[in-house]
Design a protein that fits this description.
With 426 residues, this protein is mostly helical. It contains 19 helices and no strands. Among the domains are: 1-102, Orthogonal Bundle (Rna Polymerase Sigma Factor, Chain: A); 198-316, no CATH class. The longest helix has 27 residues, at 2-28. The protein is elongated and about 80 Å long. The model is unreliable at 94-112 (pLDDT under 50). One of its GO terms (molecular function) is DNA binding. Residues 20-78 form the RNA polymerase sigma-70 region domain. This is RNA polymerase sigma factor. InterPro entries: DUF6596, RNA_pol_sigma-70_dom, RNA_pol_sigma70_r2, RNA_pol_sigma70_r4_t2, RNA_pol_sigma_r2, RNA_pol_sigma_r3/r4-like, WH-like_DNA-bd_sf.
């Protein structure tokens, strides 16, 4: 019985924890304190629910308990001589100090406030003052409801490392007095870009793991999609948010087809498209339509989503509209030029106009220092060389790519491709 109750608590916490932390953070103006008080509410649930049963509205129960803990904290601070005005509290917190009955914490009338609170929490957790690693860890902890152990396991690093990142991140935000608010004016675009970057970094680590034995970590990819959907609900007018959601939905639709029964990678052109998730494809295409309907120039995520949509719409690999994909990469190179974009453009150009055309772009990237240890540069070059019948050169490129790969499954794939080049020569 207790096991079932604990599972229910874990499920509710994963769904509700971000809202609870966000609301308490607005009251206390301190993310570290807010997380501790939210954890107190979780401990209270673990104490009461096994004895009393799961309440009818478990999210409201946790929210109410967390806010009561916050009020106790604020009263304690006030008793220590701090003036309420100096705490910078909002009207709700001031009223709650006088009228402590707020059982209707999740009434429909409060849902807009909850959305505002979540936006504040997302923008604070992803503040550019923090390192990329710290932003990722803090976001997964506060908004994903993941434990430190779960984050460490997902990223294959010691739990103590993740714990230190989170502690330092909260300390940095506190010491820098980062305001707990949604940025306005010219700061908004830069800060939103930081939020989207964090979510997409989480997704990419789940979609193609940088290290370890498994090629994918689907739980991380799914968590990123959940965070993206949450952001789209509370920021519906942001085109790039819908673009990122579209991109992640469309790429997620291929997860089941990306590996075989032994966990070995299956490249896009070889995948069984019958195993693609067509519900996710429909969701991704709908999100892309929303991004396009908001007008303006498509951003980096919407453009990548448009590329993914070309693959999703093609019944077979042979029917893929590679010329459109090449044109979209041209547009992406204008919006966000980078060596990686050029590398991907080379693939598209090679498919649309022949391997020699793609190889010309690749060879121009050979001296780029940022790609020196990037396994996909020699991998793509090897593929283009193989299509040109230059098997010996292709083999050397695949072997070089395998040496650079940090993921065991990638090394296996690239080594196998090198072996195939030896067989093709004989």
């Amino acid at each position: 019985m207790h096991s079932a109750t604990h599972q229910a608590i874990a499920a509710v916490w994963r769904i509700e924890s971000a809202k609870i932390v966000a609301t308490i953070a607005r009251m206390t103006r301190d993310i570290g304190v807010a997380e501790e008080l939210a954890q107190d509410a979780l401990v209270a649930a673990l104490e009461h629910w096994p004895r009393e049963g799961v309440p009818d509205k478990p999210g409201a129960w946790l929210m109410t308990t967390g806010k009561r803990r916050a009020l106790d904290h604020l009263r304690h601070r006030k008793m220590q001589g701090e003036k309420l005005e100096e705490l910078g509290l909002d009207l709700e917190a001031q009223e709650a100090l006088v009228v402590p009955d707020f059982v209707d914490a999740l009434d429909a009338a409060r849902q807009d406030d909850i959305g505002d609170d979540l936006l504040r929490l997302i923008f604070t957790a992803c503040h550019p003052i923090l390192s990329t690693e710290a932003r990722v860890a803090l976001t997964l902890k506060l908004l994903g409801g993941l434990t430190t152990h779960e984050i460490a396991r997902a990223y294959l690093v010691p739990e103590a490392t993740i714990a230190q990142r989170i502690v330092r991140a909260k300390r940095t935000l506190s010491e820098a007095r980062v305001p707990y608010e949604v940025p306005r004016g010219p700061d908004l675009a830069e800060r939103l870009a930081s939020v989207l970057e964090v979510i997409y970094l989480v997704f990419n680590e789940g979609y193609t793991a940088t290290a370890g034995e498994d090629w994918m970590r689907p739980a991380l990819a799914q968590e990123a999609v959940r965070l993206g959907r949450m952001l789209a609900e509370i920021a519906p007018q942001a085109s790039e948010v819908h673009g990122l959601v579209a991109l992640m939905e469309l790429q997620s639709s291929r997860l089941a087809a990306r590996t075989d029964a032994q966990g070995r990678p299956i490249l896009l052109t070889d995948q069984d498209r019958g195993r693609w998730d067509h519900l996710l494809i429909r969701r991704g295409l709908a999100a892309l339509e929303r991004a396009e309907a908001l007008g303006g120039t498509l951003g980096i995520y919407a453009l990548q989503a448009a590329i993914a949509a070309c693959h999703a719409r093609a019944p077979t690999a042979e029917q893929t509209d590679w010329q459109r994909i090449a044109a979209l990469y041209d547009a992406l190179a204008q919006v966000a030029p980078s060596p990686v974009v050029e590398l991907n453009r080379a693939v598209a150009v090679g498919m649309a106009f022949g391997p020699a055309a793609g190889l010309e772009i690749i060879d121009a990237l050979q001296g780029d220092k940022s790609l020196r240890n990037y396994q996909w540069l020699p991998s793509v070059r090897g593929d283009l060389l193989a299509k040109l019948g230059r098997h010996a050169e292709a083999r050397e490129e695949f072997l070089r790519a395998a040496q650079l790969a940090g993921n065991a499954r990638e090394r296996e794939l690239l080594t196998a491709r090198a072996d195939a080049m030896t067989a093709a020569r004989n």
